[in-house]
Amino acid sequence: PAPIGAIPSALRNDPFRRPHLGPGPAPVEVSSARGNAEGAPEITEPIPWQPELRGVMQAGTASIANVSGSIVGIGQSVDGWRLLRVEDGRAVFEQGRKQTILMMNNAGSQKK
User: Fold this and answer.
1) Considering the entire predicted model, what is its pTM?
2) Burial class (CB in 10 A: 0-12, 13-18, 19+), 26
3) Which of 28, 67, 78, 85 has the fewest CB atoms within 10 Å around its CB?
4) From the CA atom positions of the chain, what is the Rg in Å?
5) How far apart are CA 34 and CA 107, in angstroms?
6) What's the rounded Cα separation, in Å, for the pair 74 and 62?
7) What is the pLDDT of residues 38-94, one digit of tens each?
8) Neighbours of 80 (CB within 10 A)
């Protein structure tokens, strides 16, 4: 068994997603990924990281953040940025020697 407080590599449920309360089964998300004629993804120029911090859950070393729909635990990475810590309404990420602080509603994200 995993140690208490450990974050599984893949969560079965998104703790930040609102539950489906309507009649019938919950709608299924469909990917709208596009590709070239051979079905391979198109290669595009990289764009600057513009994440949206949608939510945080503080639980010590088991803290998590919802970054643009991806659930990330302490020490895990999203788009090459590693989550260092989660604070009240914000999350601190690191990439190499750079750090960035994401704030809820993406208001005032700061790069160091």
Assistant:
1) 0.56
2) exposed
3) 28
4) 17
5) 31
6) 7
7) 555 555 555 677 889 999 999 999 999 999 999 999 999 999 999 999 999 999 999
8) 9
